[in-house]
Amino acid sequence: MNDNYNEQLDLFHVNLDGFEGPLDLLLSLAKEQKVDLLEISILELASQYLNFIDQMKKIDIDLAADYIVMASWLAFLKSKLLLPDQDDEDVSAKELSAILAFRLRRLEVMREVGSKLITRDREGIHVFRRGMPENIFLIKNFNHKDTLFDLISSYSGLRNRNYDNSWKPRVFSIFSIEDARNRLEKMLGTIVDWTKIEDFLPVNNDVSEEGVLFRKSSLASIFSASLELSKEGMIEINQNKNFGSIKFKIKENRSNINEMLA
Amino acid sequence: MIEDNENNPLIEFSDQIRAVEALLFAASDPLDEKTLKDMLPVDTDIEEIMNNLLNLYKGRGVELKKVNNKWMFKTASDLSFIMQKEAKIQKKLSKAALETLSIIAYHQPVSRAEIEEIRGVTASPGTIDTLMEINWVKIKGRRKTPGNPITYGTTDEFLVHFDLENTKELPGLDELKSTGLLDSNLPPDMYPIDDDLEHIEENN
Amino acid sequence: MIEDNENNPLIEFSDQIRAVEALLFAASDPLDEKTLKDMLPVDTDIEEIMNNLLNLYKGRGVELKKVNNKWMFKTASDLSFIMQKEAKIQKKLSKAALETLSIIAYHQPVSRAEIEEIRGVTASPGTIDTLMEINWVKIKGRRKTPGNPITYGTTDEFLVHFDLENTKELPGLDELKSTGLLDSNLPPDMYPIDDDLEHIEENN
Predict the structure, then answer these.
(1) Strand C110-111 relative to strand C70-75: parallel, antiparallel, unpaired?
(2) Which candidate from B3, B25, B61 shows the least CB-CB separation from C18?
(3) Is A69 exposed, middle or buried (CB count within 10 Å of its CB: 0-12, 13-18, 19+)?
(4) Using 50, 70 and 90 to split pLDDT, how confident is the model at A258?
(5) Nearest in space to C30 (alpha carbons), one of C70, C74, C76, C79
(6) Per-residue DSSP letter, A98
(7) What's the gap in Å between the CA of A162 and the closest CA on chain B?
(8) CB-count burial class (<10 Å; 0-12, 13-18, 19+) for A53
(9) pLDDT (tens digit, 9 = 90+) per residue, B134-173?
(10) Which secondary-structure segment (H or E) carries C62?
(11) Per the CB < 8 Å rule, is A41 touching C181?
(12) How far apart are CA B46 and CA B36, in angstroms?
């Protein structure tokens, strides 16, 4: 395991790939201090972690949330450690440091016992059971090897299989800009005076989510189409004040043309 | 009766004898003498070892046997009443049986028609029978709906075998999702275990 | 060295001992004393039988071992150098899986949330699954706290694989318990003493 750590330390300035999360990173940084975890300087450790994360952010913007959360917590802890103790605090900076040291030590011992476990005499590697088991008649269900895992994974597999999980995008009924332009052109041919934008909207009294979306999209599309038409010199747009009502009117010369065409 | 190590002739046995004993015990097939010899030091007198082992296991619950020039341990033939002659019971349930069992476990009390609906296939007639034969599934009663279909549920033996205290200990939909076993897009209305499961009164 | 049956103490063994020997040999999986007893006459002193078998197999190539109050035969561990030739290649556990396994073993029964808390990362789906699939980890039940989370623990297979008689024998368990390192929160004796506060400020 130690060799593994040394390898990771070499990679410190490169990436986070070798780490199993922020606690793992902190533990590796702590080991760099080369002191007993119980005597570790949490302030120094917090600074190291924050520096490391800062460097990482320059290379990799997609830093996992776990690391960012730990960084902000450590920044908080660091500021608490540097400031004089406040009386109204629920938890003292020292207590928070102790909790962090405890968590690091706890993770470390879990790794230690893991390496102890894995080096024991293991069945199927060092030690073996009977290679030719015989069926025992008298023990009921003895020969059934189905486990709970088999049962629940079978159920999950069944559920996954029967559920159509292909993704279908939701189709919204919206009023396209193209439709809006056609509608505006048609209506402005018959309207001569300044007319509010709302009067151009298609009638829709649907109160469902769909209906609301349709009305919002028609307002947006009519407005966009009006900008297009105005740019082309076909209509005039008027708004007296901020958030005041928007009005359209066909351009004078254009209405004449329309009359001539009509 | 063997009282202590001083009187136990076994500890005098050479490591080679111990090794052959272990190899034959762990082997999944009978081993011939050449195979055994290849695993042991060159000067090993394999015949003497086999003779020693033969004597050692004579009259015991487990005997050393030579079959087709290969050696194997076998339980003594006079104890065969304990052993099953042939493996009648499969070691693992078939996929269909395991699926049916899981549906019964999660949806009990459940009728055959409902099982078929969930599995999306017509149940083969033997599947539920098999599960009832090994006593993991039982008839729970009849549902008080038209046709009064028979409903099925799991037995205490099922709980014992799968080391469950009760069927509520089965992981629920959310838990299956968090393990990654279940597609996380499954709609929530497919939640398998009804919280009121116990309150559904069936004719037991 | 055994010359003939007259000098072989083994044939004096009662049929009951032979039967238990045969059963444990045949089973390959650990069997508990109750199961063994159920298959023998009512007056059987199972403890005496086990003591006899333990003595008989002491120092042999095949040894009798106790796992979670169940009995099984296994090859002697000092013969591993020969047996390794027979060993099938085992999948290597990932660092995350071994860490998760250790946490489950030493903290059992333990919930997924607690495992994540100790590891300081969100568990990738699949880690606990893998451990359940190789049958080292099982669902222990639901905790009677809000949310009733499922808790995990180790199986008999885990004990067999790592040559442990029971979970109390996990290496270093007592020491870890006494130092409070298996507690879920900071143990009381690890709380900092307020008098030292100025000292820490000076240091930094």
Answers:
(1) unpaired
(2) B61
(3) exposed
(4) low
(5) C70
(6) H
(7) 7
(8) buried
(9) 889 999 989 888 888 999 999 998 988 888 888 888 888 7
(10) strand C62-67
(11) no
(12) 8
Select from A136, A144, A152 the Cβ nearest to the Cβ of B171.
Answer: A152
Contacting residues for A172 by C-beta, under 8 A, at least 6 apart: A210, A213, A214, A217
Run of H or E residues at C75: strand C70-75
d(CA C61, CA C44): 28
- C76 touching B (Cβ < 8 Å): yes
Mark residue B89 as left, alpha or beta (left: phi above 0; alpha: psi -120 to 50; beta: remaining): beta
* Nearest CA among C139, C73, C133 for reference residue C112: C139
Rg (CA), chain A: 35
Tell me if A248 sits within 8 A of A235, measured CB to CB. yes
C98: nearest Cα among A126, B180, A20, A7: A20
d(CA B6, CA B204): 63
Sign of CA dihedral C37, C39, C45, C47: negative
Torsion angle of C-alpha atoms C126, C128, C132, C137, degrees rounded to 10: 170
What sign for the dihedral angle of Cα B50, B55, B60, B66?
positive
According to DSSP, the residues that pair with B107 across neighbouring strands are none
DSSP B45-73: -HHHHHHHHHHHHTTSSEEEEEETTEEEE
| CA C94/CA B187 separation, integer angstroms | 33
The 3-state DSSP class for residue A82 equals helix
Q: What is the ipTM of this complex?
A: 0.71
A-B contacts (CB, under 8 Å)? 119
Determine the distance from the C-alpha atom of residue B30 to the mean position of all C-alpha atoms in its chain, rounded to a whole number: 23
Q: Which residues on C lie below 8 Å from B163 (Cβ)?
A: 138-139
Q: Return the residue matching tokens 């071994």.
A: C98
Tens digit of pLDDT for each residue in C25-60? Answer: 888 889 999 888 887 777 788 899 999 999 989 889
**Is residue A106 within 8 angstroms of chain C, CB to CB?**
yes
Predicted structure pTM score: 0.68
Phi, psi of C150 (to 5 degrees): -70, 140
Residue with tokens 């040291």: A101
Tell me if chain B has a CB within 8 Å of the CB of C46.
Answer: no
Q: Does B72 lie at the interface with C, CB-CB under 8 angstroms?
A: no
**Nearest-angstrom CA–CA distance, B179 and A149:** 11
* SS percent in chain B: helix, strand, coil, step 5: 45, 15, 40
